[in-house]
Amino acid sequence: MAREQQLTKVFVEVADSLIDDFDLIDFLQRLSERCVELLDVAACGVLLADEHDVLQVLAASDENTRLLELFALQHDQGPCVECYRSGRPRTNIDLADPNASQAWPQFTPAALQSGFLSTNAIPMRLRGRVIGALGLFQTRDSALSDADTALAQALADVATIAILQQRTLAHSETERGQLQYALTSRIVLEQVKGILAERWQVTPDQAFAAFRAYARSHHHQLSHLARLIADGEFDTDQIPRSPRHR
Amino acid sequence: MISDGMAEVLRLLQRDEGFDAAADVAVLAAVTLGVTGLTVSLATGGDRAELMWCTDDAAGSFEDLQFTLGEGPGPEAVRGDAMVLVPDLALVRPERWPALSVEAAGLAARAVFCFPMGIGAIRVGVLTLVRRTAGPLTDGQVGDAQVLAHALAGRALGSVVPGPNGAAPADSADALLHAVVHQATGMVSVQLDVSLPQALLRLRAHAYSSGRPLTDVSRDVVARRLRLDLNGNGDGNPLPVSDKD
Predict the structure, then answer these.
(1) Are residues A126 and A155 in the same domain?
(2) Do A20 and A75 sit in the same domain of this protein?
(3) What is the ipTM of this complex?
(4) Distance, CA of B91 to CA of B137 (rounded, Å)
(5) How far apart are CA A245 and CA B202, in angstroms?
(6) So where are chain B's domains?
(7) Within a domain: A172
(8) What is the model's pLDDT at position B81?
(9) In Å, what is the CA distance from A120 to each residue of A59, A89, B92?
(10) A174 found inside a domain
(11) Which is it for the CA torsion B53, B166, A187, B8, positive or negative?
(12) Looking at A237-241, B185-189, B218-222, which range is the least confident one?
């Protein structure tokens, strides 16, 4: 598909979501997947700062725990933190460059070990404030062009708008409240991955795949369904389990 | 960034041996946050909450009232997983909290700010700030209050495990940034048939007693290299089937 066509599709999808009741984590995850396609990168993650100014992973293009952990490593070091603090994008960082491993001694080897060659960080801005960063990883030696960077910034801005647009927060009047709600939802999701993984004797990643497929096909919001499961108010036997189950 | 005042509150909190001796810390926190008083209620299972901190009668009466009535900014913050800020109770539409709007008129509270304490689906309680005069919190005060609520939640969830000399907790604060810790919490809750907060406590207890970071223990649980028993001990071997009821 030509890039214009792809962009049109993403634009329509984004607009559709934002005018409707939508699930933030699911939305950001789809947006991360679109970033991967549009920017021709290998992985994308949305990181949001918590009340301690520490970056937390809200969504990633691929929900596998290994990738989530790699993004989590960027809570106190790595290009996303620098981008968050400076408010400026950091693009086309060569992970094999000795400067990278010197600057970020934990993050750089972990990223290389995951097969990534270069990385980028794009700020998520809100009225002069930076609330988080979009992290992009590449497995091939191909630099992001200026046009790519501009597009990445636009996608980061869409993520920011989505976070502040959550409909379910009728009573959360503040931006800080919305950010907090988003971060809490993410943690609930991880706790539920564990609950389902143990009930079904599969990995958390497999449990999440089954859970998300069920939520999407039944038009449940991921965060809402996760909350019900965590509170013991949803019979998880209704969810078709992974084929690996007994 | 948190204020110097709140940094001092957190230092005192960490040094403090228990919540009983925390009255001075609570008062200092209220002063730092620019409010008349504050309460900290712990969820004790069910709808009743246990008052852990209470700086004064005005704050205590308001907290009692909203939990008796089951409505108000506190219960709403707990149910909605987000802070509820009410800069002027007199301006709240009566239909939002019908019973409270009638009863609260007789209380000294004019502005109320509630911050849920919890970790994901684990609801620990709520921090409620009360002021006799109307007006919003500053952005900095909101940030400070969030940090305090977070610290109190962490303390409430780690209090079963005494740190060395009553000091540092068994895990660093950033352990909770790791998805794997939350996944392990969910797994342990099913394995031992306990609540999520209980599961996190068992994980912490095991990390502490084995001298390993919480993230490492969690990774082992998720990879099924480790299975905790009801005492929070693990023998390091995966057990495909639990022999306990």
Answers:
(1) yes
(2) yes
(3) 0.85
(4) 16
(5) 27
(6) 4-159, 164-245
(7) no
(8) 83
(9) 16, 8, 46
(10) no
(11) positive
(12) A237-241
Question: Phi/psi of residue B160, each to 5°?
Answer: -70, -25
Closest residue by Cα to residue A115 from A95, A99, A132: A95
pLDDT of residue A2: 81
Q: Which residues of B touch A (CB under 8 A)?
A: 1-2, 76, 80-85, 118-122, 139, 142-143, 146-147, 150, 173-174, 176-180, 182-191, 196, 222
- What is the distance between the alpha carbons of residues B217 and A69, in angstroms, rounded to a whole number? 15
What pLDDT is recorded for position B239?
Answer: 46
Which of B83, B122, B179 faces A65 most closely, judged by CB atoms? B179
CATH number of the domain at B4-159, please? 3.30.450.40
Say how far apart CA B190 and CA A191 lie, in whole Å. Answer: 11
How would DSSP label each residue in A81-120? HHHHHH-S-EEEEETTSHHHHHH-TTHHHHHHHTT--EEE
**A150 in any annotated domain:** yes
Burial profile A139-156: b = 16 or more Cβ within 10 angstroms, e = fewer: eeeeebeeebbebbbebb
What's the whole-number mean pLDDT along residues B61-88?
Answer: 90
A232 interaction partners in chain B (CB closer than 8 Å): none
- Exposed/middle/buried for residue B213 (C-beta within 10 Å: 0-12, 13-18, 19+): middle
Q: How many contacts does A have with B, using Cβ atoms within 8 A? A: 127
Residue with tokens 């979009």: A134
In the block, which residue shows the tokens 């509270």? B109
DSSP label at residue B240: S
| Joined tokens for residue B112 | 């109320």
Neighbours of A135 (CB within 10 A): 29
Average pLDDT over residues A69-97: 91
Q: Which residue of A has its CA nearest to B78?
A: A181
Which burial class, exposed, middle or buried, applies to A123 when counting CB atoms under 10 A from its CB (0-12, 13-18, 19+)?
buried
Q: Report the run of H or E that residue A43 belongs to, with start and end.
A: strand A43-49
| Residue B41 to residue B149: CA distance in whole angstroms | 11
